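User: Design a sequence. Structure:
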């Protein structure tokens, strides 16, 4: 019965630890995500500042996988380059050592005070405040994590009094490969080398692990963490995959650099890593924590030493995709913010480029700038969304420079265009998916083909008008998108008259494609109006659902 209680105590502590670690990543990760983008934008030019950001981010989020994902998203949004992300990525590993080192210290009183403080915040209903909710939730997660560690610590001390458990660990300690393999497997399963290290610290403090056994388990955990990061990146490509491969490579190579020291020290009894750690402290819990810290420092050293060799290797293993290249801004750069007129002209060109992606949904790419072609509709939408976000940030930055009233009006106009661009891409993505479905009814199939051809022709005319900015072309575009005769409604009626027995599914498909067509043409008309006059909005009476000459083309 005592054995069952002991294992239940350990499992309960492990459960609280997992709940707490997930909560920290979810809540503090949100807080870090809001500010991390601004830090990176301002500080990545300085290695020391980037390293400090990475260390702090790792200490706060306590998950190198979470930091890797954040950096992946920033690289995909063109907010950071691989070179800028490297120091943040590798130093985030060092940041995770903060929790491991804290666990090695007796913080029983601190845990009790932290739990009491968390309860007080909940009593004051701060968890209901939008401003304080993430912080209070994160504090609760930290309390649960440390309470779990306390339960594990107490359970492990009881565990060492069980004869068969003590004999098992004494036997496994003789097999170095087994200890290393356990670390690898646990890190892959738990997705965290720090979690495995904390378990090893708890077991060592209870006298169940020797330093040598715990050291090999921690080294194996670092390798396992590298493998898990690489596995996560399997479905990615381009710079996102490069960052994941880099994280995996530095973790594994860091262990490769330390293993010879451990092997030589054991085989020839030459005082090296283990002797140094024992010289620093005699507390075995702190010794295991220092082993973990040594793994993270080794990873940083590997990245610094082999930087020139790693960069081309990453590019070779994960070359940029066509979609990723297309999602990089071609005309926007931060220095242009100093010249508002130049900046606005660059925004116009970038928006015209994003507009040029629209025909890709319908398989038309003859006149696109630079021959940019993306095969998958989802990739077109993702590239456009990334560029719209970049343009939006650029316009916000331009507005924050103390621009004049006229410039602010022009910025508002382009921000409105940006919103229409995103909506156009989403609507065309939805329409192209609807048109790609097979239609059994001949009249419906003919309508879908005509709508597709007519809209493709209109988009090509619109692209030329947007690209060149010619007033006559824009006027023609507005005329083509004007709705005067409700032609789309006539086309609907024609399908109904062709076959009186339309099924519910066919009716749904008919209304879906015609409604999306009307919405797209209306947005094209509004986009053209914004181009014609930046400070003038079209009267509300004219904002009718369009079909116009585009529908005529579809006929």
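Assistant: Done.
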């Amino acid at each position: 019965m005592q054995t069952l209680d002991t294992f239940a105590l350990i499992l309960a502590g492990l459960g609280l630890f997992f709940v707490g670690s997930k909560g920290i990543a979810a809540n503090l990760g949100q807080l870090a995500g809001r500010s991390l983008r601004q830090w990176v934008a301002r500080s990545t030019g300085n290695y020391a500042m980037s390293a400090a950001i990475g260390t702090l981010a790792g200490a706060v989020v306590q998950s190198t996988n979470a930091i890797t994902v954040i950096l992946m998203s920033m690289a995909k949004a063109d907010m950071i380059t691989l070179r800028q992300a490297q120091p943040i990525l590798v130093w985030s590993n060092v940041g995770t050592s903060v929790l491991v080192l804290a666990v090695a210290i007796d913080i029983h009183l601190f845990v009790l005070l932290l739990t009491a403080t968390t309860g007080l915040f909940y009593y004051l209903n701060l968890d209901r405040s939008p401003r304080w909710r993430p912080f209070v939730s994160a504090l609760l997660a930290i309390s649960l994590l440390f309470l779990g560690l306390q339960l594990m610590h107490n359970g492990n001390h009881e565990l060492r009094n069980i004869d068969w458990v003590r004999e098992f660990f004494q036997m496994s300690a003789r097999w170095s490969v087994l200890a290393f393999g356990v670390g690898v497997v646990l890190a892959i399963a738990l997705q965290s080398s720090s979690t495995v290290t904390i378990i090893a610290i708890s077991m060592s403090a209870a006298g169940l692990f020797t330093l040598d056994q715990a050291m090999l388990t921690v080294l194996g955990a670092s390798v396992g963490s590298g493998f898990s990061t690489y596995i996560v990146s399997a479905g990615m490509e381009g710079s996102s995959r490069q960052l994941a491969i880099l994280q995996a490579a530095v973790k594994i190579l860091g262990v490769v650099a330390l293993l010879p020291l451990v092997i030589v020290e054991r085989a020839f009894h030459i005082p090296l890593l283990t002797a140094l750690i024992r010289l620093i402290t005699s507390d075995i819990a702190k010794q295991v924590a220092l082993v973990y810290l040594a793994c993270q420092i080794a990873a940083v050293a590997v990245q610094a030493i082999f930087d020139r060799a790693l960069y081309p290797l990453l590019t070779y293993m994960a070359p940029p995709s066509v979609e990723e290249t297309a999602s990089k801004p071609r005309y926007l750069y931060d220095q242009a913010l100093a010249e508002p007129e130049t900046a606005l002209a660059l925004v116009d060109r970038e928006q015209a480029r994003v507009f040029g992606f629209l025909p890709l949904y319908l398989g038309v790419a003859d006149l696109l700038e630079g021959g940019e072609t993306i095969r998958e509709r989802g990739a077109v939408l993702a590239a456009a969304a990334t560029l719209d976000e970049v343009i939006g940030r650029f316009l916000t930055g331009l507005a924050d420079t103390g621009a004049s009233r006229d410039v602010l009006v022009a910025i508002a106009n382009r921000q409105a265009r940006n919103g229409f661009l995103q909506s156009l891409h989403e609507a065309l993505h939805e329409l192209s998916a609807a048109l790609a479905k097979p239609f059994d009814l001949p009249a419906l199939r003919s309508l879908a083909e005509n709508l597709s051809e007519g809209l493709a022709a209109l988009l090509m005319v619109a692209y030329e008008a947007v690209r060149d900015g010619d007033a006559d072309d824009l006027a023609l575009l507005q005329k083509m998108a004007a709705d005067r005769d409700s032609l789309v409604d006539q086309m609907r009626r024609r399908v109904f008259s062709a076959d009186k027995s339309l099924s519910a599914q066919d009716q749904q498909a008919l209304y879906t494609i015609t409604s999306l067509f009307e919405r797209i043409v209306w947005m094209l008309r509004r986009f053209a109006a914004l181009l014609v006059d930046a400070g003038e909005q079209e009267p509300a009476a004219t904002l009718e659902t369009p079909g116009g000459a585009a529908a005529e083309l579809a006929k």
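The chain is about 75% helix and 0% strand. The radius of gyration is 30 Å.
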